[in-house]
Write a structure and sequence with these properties.
Blueprint (H helix, E strand, L loop, with lengths): L6 E6 L2 H10 L4 E6 L2 E6 L2 E7 H8 L12 E5 L4 H12 L3 E8 L5 E6 L5 E6 L4 E2 L5 E2 L5
Parallel strand pairs: 1-4, 5-8
Antiparallel strand pairs: 2-3, 3-4, 6-7, 7-8, 9-10
Length: 143
């Protein structure tokens, strides 16, 4: 298996509410979005929103519980001050701030917000990561 992440799909309670939230963040939907699913091109990864019931049925799993799912999604920024700005934009779009931005033990600066379904997003500035023009991240030592 090639080392690659292609698509992250969130199973959401109300697709219209989630679609509106991400649109308020300034994200633009891409084809093949339709009434049942929303897709957003995020650098080299696709981010999708689909109804929770449809995702559970498609995956053939039991209905999910509630609470933290042991997964966070990260949005890295190019400059430290963008963490605060991005958290403010998320809150204005309807997010709940889980943790205000603060210095980290590893030399970065991060904060967390939750989208309307409670999915936790980390907004992070990492001085060791290079963000390319297309939004993808180049890890240190990766040619």
């Amino acid at each position: 298996m090639e080392q690659r992440l292609s698509l992250v799909t969130l199973g959401v309670r109300d697709l219209a509410v989630s679609r509106a939230f991400y649109t308020r963040l300034g994200w633009k939907e891409s084809a093949p979005s339709n009434d049942s699913v929303a897709f957003f091109q995020c650098g080299g990864v696709i981010f999708g929103l689909w109804s929770r019931d449809s995702l559970v049925e498609d995956a053939g799993i039991k209905a999910p519980g509630s609470g933290f799912s042991n997964v966070t999604i990260a949005h890295n920024v190019r400059r430290k001050e963008e963490v605060d700005t991005t958290l403010q934009e998320a809150e204005q779009a309807g997010a709940t701030i889980l943790k205000p931005a603060s210095e980290t033990f590893w030399g970065g600066y991060t904060g967390y917000f939750a989208d309307p379904d409670g999915f936790a997003w980390e907004v992070a500035w990492n001085p060791g990561f290079t963000i390319l023009d297309d939004g993808s991240i180049k890890l240190p030592g990766q040619g």
